[in-house]
Amino acid sequence: MSGLEVRELSAGYRGRTVVSAVSTTVDSGGWLGIIGPNGAGKSTLLKAIAGLVGHTGSVLVDGRPLGSLRRRERARTIGYAPQIPQLPIGLTVTDYVLLGRTPHLGPLARESAADLDVVSSVLARMDLTGLADRSLSTLSGGERQRAVLARALAQRAGVLLLDEPTTGLDIGHAQALLDLVDELRVELGTTVISTLHDLTLAGQYAERLLLLDRGEVVTEGAPAEALTPARLATHYAARTSVLRSPDGTPVIAPIR
Ligand SMILES: Nc1ncnc2c1ncn2[C@@H]1O[C@H](COP(=O)(O)OP(=O)(O)OP(=O)(O)O)[C@@H](O)[C@H]1O
Ligand SMILES: [Mg+2]
């Protein structure tokens, strides 16, 4: 499906550069986790890839520069779930998640049975079926977060950018979400880039981790290579011990 290449991407705000010359590639169906301390530039990097903040350098999907795509085509190519979403508060959950299908609608702009199927299956998988007719303004924090992710997943874009998708989710709903994303990756070849502050989850789901600090790439590699107590001390000022789960993935335990 859609491989992604980021070349020498720099981005920032009002002349202040907060992401400096980041280059990376994610194969079609791959999952890259972006980690790093608060303010490192992770969200800015995702927004720049999505074309939502000014940047230099280039982003290519299947070798085509994203900048050359029309809006609709871009929306079918890249899905983005922001860390701090702005919600149109009057909508119901169903109508909001249906907005994810907008880039796929035909000339009459009516959703088809297939669009409704995608929406109802995503709602079910995100445990939102019982809330389908509720107004967004009445949802709890975690329910709202799940609605935002459901909309991005319903978009079925080839590349999915998820900024702290598990924020506010309990451990079971966090796993259900990451499992669903992983399924899309395996079954549809969706290419995933996510930021995740939970480093254990990041290491369990992402195939590779890119550690960003002060806008620069510190390291990129397999989770077991990227997550070392020494790196977490240097870049997060954190005291940790790295354990191993039965399947060999690192478990980051904070040490008091
Ligand atoms: N709209 C903006 N205008 C000005 N500066 C901004 C803006 N958004 C972010 N910044 C600054 O850019 C830097 C990087 O912010 P960014 O949101 O990318 O960090 P992050 O790595 O996602 O952090 P967090 O882990 O807290 O989500 C920070 O210093 C932040 O204050
Ligand atoms: Mg962020």
Automatic annotation (TrEMBL):
<keyword id="KW-0547">Nucleotide-binding</keyword>
<protein>
    <submittedName>
        <fullName>ABC transporter ATP-binding protein</fullName>
    </submittedName>
</protein>
<keyword id="KW-1278">Translocase</keyword>
<keyword id="KW-0813">Transport</keyword>
<dbReference type="InterPro" id="IPR003439">
    <property type="entry name" value="ABC_transporter-like_ATP-bd"/>
</dbReference>
<dbReference type="InterPro" id="IPR017871">
    <property type="entry name" value="ABC_transporter-like_CS"/>
</dbReference>
<dbReference type="Pfam" id="PF00005">
    <property type="entry name" value="ABC_tran"/>
</dbReference>
<dbReference type="InterPro" id="IPR003593">
    <property type="entry name" value="AAA+_ATPase"/>
</dbReference>
<dbReference type="GO" id="GO:0005524">
    <property type="term" value="F:ATP binding"/>
</dbReference>
<dbReference type="InterPro" id="IPR027417">
    <property type="entry name" value="P-loop_NTPase"/>
</dbReference>
<feature type="domain" description="ABC transporter">
    <location>
        <begin position="4"/>
        <end position="239"/>
    </location>
</feature>
<keyword id="KW-0067">ATP-binding</keyword>
